[in-house]
Amino acid sequence: MSVRMRHTRAHTGNRRSHHALTAPRLSKCPKCSQDHLRHRVCENCGSYRGKEVIDVVAKLEKKDSKRKAKEQSARG
């Protein structure tokens, strides 16, 4: 079967010109001046719009204690 109304390469290219991916928009955190995604909590310090939303230190301590408990249970 042959294609009846074939699109040229230029027509296909014009359609696909809008398919390009864009890089994520990043903003600088006012507290720690590290890049973070816009409208999201800063992963480094846990603040959003000047307020501390997540206690990052407590979160890291909890993760570390869980890892240690898992290692203890694996040993004995």
Overview of this protein structure:
There is one protein chain. The protein has helices at residues 9-16, 56-75, and strands spanning 26-28, 35-37, 47-48, 51-52. It has 76 residues and is of the alpha+beta class. The strands form two sheets. A two-stranded antiparallel sheet has the order 1-2. The protein has a two-stranded antiparallel sheet with strand order 3-4. The radius of gyration is 25 Å and the shape is elongated. The termini are far apart.
Outline the fold blueprint.
Blueprint (H helix, E strand, L loop, with lengths): L8 H8 L9 E3 L6 E3 L9 E2 L2 E2 L3 H20 L1
Antiparallel strand pairs: 1-2, 3-4
Total helical elements = 2
Q: Element order, helices and strands? A: HEEEEH
Biggest β-sheet, characterized? 2 strands, antiparallel
Helix content: 25-40%
Q: Name the overall outline.
A: elongated
Kindly report the spatial arrangement of strands forming the biggest sheet: 1-2
Low-confidence stretches: none
Q: What are the key terms here?
A:
single chain, two-stranded antiparallel sheet, two-stranded antiparallel ribbon, 13% strand
Give a brief outline of the structure.
The protein is of the alpha+beta class. It has 2 helices and 4 strands, in the order αββββα.
